């Protein structure tokens, strides 16, 4: 397990130059935008416009903060995403355009290379103690709001708002969590 502190995340321009992204984690470590196997990042979207195209990549997006945006995804009906919406999966290699509802938003993006990986993204609200089963080999838990403490296999630690926990060899184990927090769990698998 590795704690990733919010203050250490890498800031970089969007692939299309239209904004800035905050990279939480990427594999392999230090992979560029063309060479990652998987990537978890946050971005602030302040203007309407197209998403960057990532050939061979699947993406899931969820709104963390703000009043929402409409995604126009080629071949689909427009989708309104708000902080209450479920995470939305879509291919990252087709045209997608964003229209803001009322001001800037911050989103969480999970991307995996379609040829060898798949992912899921779920929102988890924690109020007290819980045991979270981990079903995939690689998991990332982002503490978006609040704070929590965790335990797994004799290791323990804490996450503040914005911090993340990256867990390798996670399948078949459980993470014990205490606290009050809104979290997002990313699970990355080999299909």
Automatic annotation (TrEMBL):
InterPro entries: RmlC-like_jellyroll, RmlC_Cupin_sf, Uncharacterised_HutD/Ves
Recorded superkingdom: Bacteria
CDD domains linked to this entry: cupin_HutD_N
Protein name: HutD protein
């Amino acid at each position: 397990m590795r704690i990733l502190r919010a203050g250490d995340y890498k800031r970089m321009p969007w692939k299309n130059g239209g904004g800035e992204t905050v990279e939480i984690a990427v594999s392999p470590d230090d992979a560029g935008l063309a060479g990652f196997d998987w990537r978890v990042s946050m971005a602030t979207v302040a203007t309407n416009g197209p998403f960057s195209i990532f050939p061979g990549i699947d993406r899931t997006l969820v709104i963390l903060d703000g009043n929402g945006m409409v995604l126009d995804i080629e071949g689909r009906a427009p989708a309104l995403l708000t902080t209450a919406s479920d995470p939305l999966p879509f291919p990252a290699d087709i045209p997608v355009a964003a229209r803001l509802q009322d001001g800037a938003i911050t989103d969480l993006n999970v991307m995996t290379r379609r040829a060898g990986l798949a992912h899921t993204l779920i929102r988890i609200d924690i109020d007290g103690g819980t045991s979270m089963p981990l079903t995939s080999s690689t998991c990332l838990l982002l503490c978006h709001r609040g704070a929590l403490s965790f335990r797994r296999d004799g290791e323990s630690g804490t996450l503040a708002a914005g911090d993340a926990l990256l867990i390798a060899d996670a399948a078949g184990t459980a993470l014990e969590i205490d606290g009050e927090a809104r979290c997002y769990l990313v699970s990355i698998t080999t299909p």
